[in-house]
User: What shape does this take?
Amino acid sequence: MTEVYITIDTEYSSGFAARARGCERAANFARSIACETPDGAVGVDYQLDVFDAHGLKAVFFVDPMPALLWGVAAIEDVVGPIVARGHDVQLHLHTEWLALAGASNPLGSKTGINIKDFTFEDQCRLIEHARALLVAAGAPAPVAFRAGNYGANDDTLRALAECNLTYDTSHCPGIAGSLCDISLSTEDRQPMHHSGVIEVPIGCIAGFSGRLRHAQVTALTAGEVLCAIRHARRQEIDSFTLVSHSFELLSRDRHRINHIVKHRFEQLCAGLARLDGVRTATYADTPPVVRDQPAAASVLPHNPLRTSRRLAEQALANALYGAR
Assistant: This one.
């Protein structure tokens, strides 16, 4: 059985908050979490509807740092529906919010774009503070973490271990030039013990010229992801991690539904529900395990026809809804 982890980075926009510089929490929620448009909403509640309709489980990596600006109620509004409907909430952390926090900054005047910009001790403080905010908002105590922007390093993993979090999933082999500074390579593609935690890399497929492409809803077609998961099952690979965002089904400016990506998401969920030997999993109930298998497990080989279809689809989506 191959376990598929559908992971949703669930976050308010610090960029919108910085530009608003006021009490624009409701508008930020509408654009980043609920994803409301004149044609309907495609945010967290819609995604939950689709998952539930197909009997799938998802992991929502929720960033609690906006509570520094707006209070815990802002995170309760995010966490509540996810927990109520039986899905998984784990810890996400964007340190950009520290620059907006003022007196609420747990590090005083220190700020940084990524968690890796801070010392080990300060990373521990940030993780502990963020976890406390997430639990105060109604989430079960998290066991897994993903850094905002994938911007973690080995100190982040050691800090997670110090704070008794077991899993990290910030290593993304399929993004060349990722902001992740964890000392792993593109060959490290399966769960492994590293710097005191279990690192769970984000899935990928082979692309042009031996490059890898990461498994994200906006980065691969539904067909490519489903082929990758079938390939993992045939190779007896235990798990495959897919990434999306709370706002990913919107246009670039977050004012309209991106119908191409929305259809892709729906196709993916419907296809997953039909796959034999595959099931969706969560960190709360069936966390990833470290097996005695090569870290550089086989990825779906490059297929020019699949790539051409994706490029055509992406070109149309970018023309209609803005390039990502």
About this structure: The first helix runs from residue 14 to 20. The first strand starts at residue 2 and ends at 10. The mean pLDDT is 95. The chain has one domain: 2-321.
